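Translate sequence into structure tokens.
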Amino acid sequence: MIPVISIVGRHDSGKTTLLVSLLGVLQARGLKIAVIKHSHHVLTFGDDTDTDLLFGAGAQAVYTVSPDVTLRYRRQAEQPPDSYLEELKDSGVDIIITEGYKHERFFKIEVLRRDIATESMGLPGTIAHVSDFLMESPRPVFDFTATEALCDHILKHVLP
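Result follows.
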């Protein structure tokens, strides 16, 4: 099974910002990463691209295929994360990072911002916090700029 780590936190805490930084560092280390992003909101599509236009017009599925990237939009009810993990099992990725899924069994990195919340959610499986303020925690606390050290910590937990 491909190892999974979740980036969790309250709305607007910086989860995606952190994830973008982590992706850069992990890829520079030669790792292939897949991301599964959970959203509590209904996804909407504009008319910026032909793919958005076609899907917005009501197509059940739209595949946009180019020499190096394929986009797949598909209408379906939300599935448990295990179904997406199953899809990725033969993809050649080294790690799957989810954004969200705070109640799943995965190891978690909790992101906190002073302006959003200063109290940890205390979720099971949390192996570290990333914060823009000093906080006490029984787990390691990383600043948003400590991406290399955070990657070391993540890899220590998820790779054999």
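Note: The helical segments are 15-28, 50-56, 81-88, 147-158.
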